[in-house]
Amino acid sequence: MAKKIGSEALGRFYKEGSKVRTRREWRGVKDTAYDFSRWLVIMGTLGKFIIKPRNMKAMLRYRWMANYLAVPMMVDRHTQGLRGEYLRMCHAEQDLIIDDVAKLLDKLFKGDRRIGNDEEFSKKVVLVDENEMTAVMMGFPMLETLSRETPSTYVPVLLNQHSMEYYMDIAEEFGLAPDVCPMPEAEAGVSINDDAPVLGACAIQCNTTCDGSLLGNGVISKRLELEDGIPVFQLAAPLRHREDDVQEYAAQEIRNAIAFIEKHTGAKWDWDAYFECAKRVNLATRCRQEWLDMNKTDYPQVFGSNLALYTETNYMAICGRVPAFAKVDRKLTKLAEKAYKKKKMMAKEYRHRAIIWGVQSHYYFDFLLWLLNCWGIVPLTDMLSMVSTKEIAEVDTPENREQAYYDMAWLTENMIMRNRTHGGYKVLLDELWDFVEEFNADMVILWEHMSCKALDGMHGMFEDRAREKGINLVWVEHDLFDPRIISRQGVRDQINNYMRTVMREEPIDPSLEVLPDDQSW
Amino acid sequence: MCKKCKCCSKLPWWSKLLIATTGIFGLLFTVYFFNLDMKLTAMMEPWLLKWYDHVDRDKHL
Q1: C-alpha triplet A463, A469, A470: angle, nearest 5°
Q2: Rounded to two decimals, what is the model's pTM?
Q3: Are B37 and A72 within 8 A, CB to CB?
Q4: ipTM (interface predicted TM)
Q5: Do A19 and B45 touch (CB under 8 A)?
Q6: Beta-carbon count within 10 A of A463 CB
Q7: pLDDT digits (tens, 9 = 90+) for B22-44
């Protein structure tokens, strides 16, 4: 019986005041057996990680490591209600991301002066921002590209909604403005609290998303350079990234960053490695484009969390450097094609086709799946997944070596979120309505991240345009990393109220409308 | 297997293997299905958070 999509009321697994759910979902014999087998694999990955004494030492040193206790639950949140190909797609990507983060943590602690203190290894490490395209590292296969913010700040919020409250309070305690974006605020808090691993030959920071990230970078780089003796390069990508006249400057910034890395690590740029990575970047672009094309039809396949979480990781953090992701790109495409041919659906009913725009709530990333399971709203695509679809030069020729600097600059300028929050109203406002038409959407869910000034400034313009076009526009306020300001239920209530009062609809799964998950991970 | 138990000693090796595998499978599946892994780690978290409060740190801007 539970084999059928939507046959179990998903809200019944939540318990008031509990961090975790009462039990896992029964999905029929085949899908439950598959989910069970993947749970075993995840437990194996976690077991292999924690069995190393230095990783255990790090677990007891860094407060943010406690959030990794919740890894299996994060997967459960993103697989809620999924069956067949959709369940397999989710596991293919989530299991790879877990493995990749476990390797990242292992390497960070290996070089960390407080934990493994492997000095030879540390000399090969280049630290990069969490919100930064790693394109500039594509030609350095002999170096380790490690981000400290990804495992200490970004991933913990996906695991545990309350994970960054402690660090945000620390940052504010030391005088940082409380209305700044909670992401850089928490990153600064980790640094202030002396909770960032210390390693590396040098670091690259980028003026990625906003003035908030510049604030965080300032606090972090001061400690890195003046106390830890790790030189930092500030990669300043242009704001108006669609203009031709900024591209030469952007390419020069990439040349400067490469020269900086070569100087501090002694490594030499490898063109063969670069063009190998470029091929994988293009493969990822083609695959993503194919998924988006499917999502324009009546049978969308790779959407919601399956699209958003994977694109963020693959496009930005991986950027062609890890061959395993190319394998998963192909696997996802194959599964999507198979489901498309059979005209399969992820939920039992699709009522609305929605474009999700704005910066999504990080403490409620599985909201996209909730929209589908509770109200039948199909999140066809989201702003953070609408990144560059331009293929870059992938054949090694003298002309392409020059073009490569422009391609790396283009990717850096078009980093996730940055490609929309920077670049003016055309990329943020106008292109949304083009996508609404292309995807045949009847609804726009607009995240209003209350600390994101770049987006909030256009509130009225979004409303005017939605009225003109007759599109249902639903605002959903949140505070990115801080569920104390607007809780997960507070996020859900905004949709519930709209769907009941404006759309006059009843939920598909009423058990999901109100969930007691305030204390939940 | 218990030496005193005559039934066990009479069983062929493959039956013993089958029983052990079924037992391990049953145990793991029970942990998986009733979310016992997460319930256990949820109990560990408060202990860990208290531990971190006592770790020495050079806390400053």
Answers
A1: 85
A2: 0.94
A3: yes
A4: 0.92
A5: yes
A6: 13
A7: 999 999 999 999 999 999 999 99
